[in-house]
Structure formats: C-alpha cells, structure tokens
Amino acid sequence: MPGMINTHTHLFQTLLKGLGDDMDLKKWFSCMTGPAAVHLTTEDMATAALHGCVESLMSGVTTLVEYQYVNTQDDMIDAVYDSFDQTGIRGFVCRGFMTTGEDHGVPPALIEKTEHVIEHTRAAARRHNRPGGRVQIGIAPCMCWTVDPDAYRAVRKLADEEGLFITAHLSENAFEVERAKESFGTTTAQFFDEIGFLGPDVLAVHCVHCNSRDIRLMKMRDVKVSHNPCSMLYVGLGVAPIPEMLAAGLTVSLGSDGPASNNNHSIFHVMKFAALVPKGVHEDPTIMTAEKALEMATIDGARAVGLEDEIGSLEPGKKADLAIMDLSESIWATPLHRVPSAIVYSALGHEVTDVMVDGTFVIRNRQHTVLNIKELRAASQKAADGLAGRAGVDHFKTRPWRSVTA
Hints:
α2 (42-58) runs parallel beside α3 (76-87) and α11 (267-281) packs across α12. α4 links the parallel β3 and β4 (135-141). Helices cover 41% and strands 16% of the residues. It is of the alpha/beta class.
C-alpha cells in the first residue's frame, strides 16, 4: 500500500506518553506538558524524535509533519532534522513558536520574540532545504491566543520569500473561539483571511470549531486540513465537522497529534476513529467509508503537504514510498474479505512488515535497517524518566487508581 502521511505531531511528546491521561486541556498543558517542555534538552529532543520517527515508520507512515513548538535551545530544530535524516523518513520539520500567552498559562521560557523566530527559521531553511529534498524546514505558529497578529503577518512574509510550508492550529477548542472573538472580533479563520495569511501552502490543524463560513473561506483559499480525532477526543475538545468539509471540497488529511494527547503515532488508530466517529455523531453509518479514511491517510495527506504528484499513491513516476503488510498472519485481520475494511477496521498496525521511502527499505522484517530498536527503546525510557523527574511531573506515574475522575 502507499506509505501513509501523518500531517501533525509534536515529537518531543514521545517522552510523555500516559502522563496526561484524563485531564482537561488546561491542566494537561499547565501541569504536565508545559513544565516538561521547559525542561526539555536537545538530547531529549533528539531521542524523542528518533523514537517517534521509527515508531511511525514501523506502522507504515513514510511522511511526517513535525510541529516543533519547543525551541528553548537553538539547535533543537537541527536535532530533529537529523533524526528525520537518520531514520530515513520523509517530512517537514516545522519550526513552531509562541510570542504571548503567559496570562493563559504559557510558560515564559516558551515565549519568543518574533524577530528571533523569523531569522532562526530562515537560517534553518537556508541550511537544510533543497529542491526535492526528502526533509524540509517549515514554520508553525501556535494557537491564536499564543501568537500576536504581527507574528502571523511575519510568517506569511517569510513563507512567501523562502517558499516555506506553513502549518497552524486553527479553531481547536471553545477557548480559542472565545479568544479570537475577543481579540479579532471574528473567528481565527476569518482573521487569517483578513490579513492575507491563508493560502494553498497552509495546513490548518484540528479545525474542531470551524463554522460554515470558515469552511467556505478555507475552500476558497485552498487551505488544507489535518484532522486529529484521537487527540481531540483524548482531551475532550469535540469533533471536527469533517463531513461538511469533505462536502465543501476541502482536502482533509489525518494526524496523530503529539503522543502526550494520543499516546502513540499509529495512523491505523486514527483512520478507525476518523471513519467511526462521524457515524455515531450523525447517527448515519453511511456518512464515512473505510475507503475515504484510507484516502485521507494516503493521497489526501500527500495533497495536504503539496506532494500529491510525488507520493500518496502507487503509480508509475511517483517516488517509491510504500508499506508492505502481511494480513494473512494477523489473527485480528483474518478471515479476510475486503482489504480496505481490514486495513481500517481490523488491523492494529503491527501487520506492517516492510517499509520503503524513496526506493530504499527503512523497515525490513519489522526491524529498522539502521537503528537498533531495543537500544532506542532503552534510550527513550531513560530520557523520559529523566525529563519527568526534572520537570516534577513524575508523580503522574504513580497516581492512585481512579474508577471515576471526580
């Protein structure tokens, strides 16, 4: 099958799996993820990125969009780029940032000056980006309540000057909707349109609370969408209006989001949620199909990152990015009647045996062709334990059993 495209993650969160369970978003960020981000080192970032890239490859993902909003050390972006390069995965390392938001719980250490962000991103892009390169540097402004309006304008200018891919959180939760109305007098999407930020090079993430006008604007500007159903349900933010987006003709791709709000990088899980949740919400089992979920994970993902002529389907002339699955050995995927159904509804992800990126095998017989997976697991566990201890969030490991959260 075509290699899958995961259009949204935060790789540093690989070290935080399971620490933020059953929390609302404010507590999840202010009490766990934010403190951990402040104490992250470049070595932690590199280890987390290596683990996340290999985890993605082993589950059939060949292209990854990293939304790296922690840059407390300037060499962190190079560490993640090197992890992509070393593991052989294709993708975009998008330099994320926040310029404000301390009054809403953003740790001061994560807040940066716009001028530094722009020049740091420009330098990284000029250092790493090459026409047709397997890994590209992009830019990723965070939520509208953590980025001031002039910073969005600066991002647009930088992207136009350097030809950079842009990805941005958009209408993720009710809090953002309220802040956008308070700050801009309108929705985030409509504000973005007013300042000329939207365009075909923009990948909007989450879009849970987009209204019909937002959707029409996004279609008019050819904005792409990254749908992250597992993480949005994990932190209780709601369900994006995906059927309405698809009916409007928007390109909708799939993302795992960071493993601190999903707990893995499996697009198999995301496909199943993307197919099933709309059926329940709309009480209509015909509203989403397994085939469409599979398209969202492959060719629509390629469209979302502007690479539909190169990846996302198995066709002559395209790059050889592919995953090989052995469904016959899976007790969960057999008896086998229809392959799309088995992939989306039955498979767990470990049915992937081999993965090729750009014509080179990076996973062979469920092992990475360069890195020792056992050693990588040990290194990431050590880094995760150290980070949790330094950040003071290790108490979440031993919290008491809770049958209810009240």
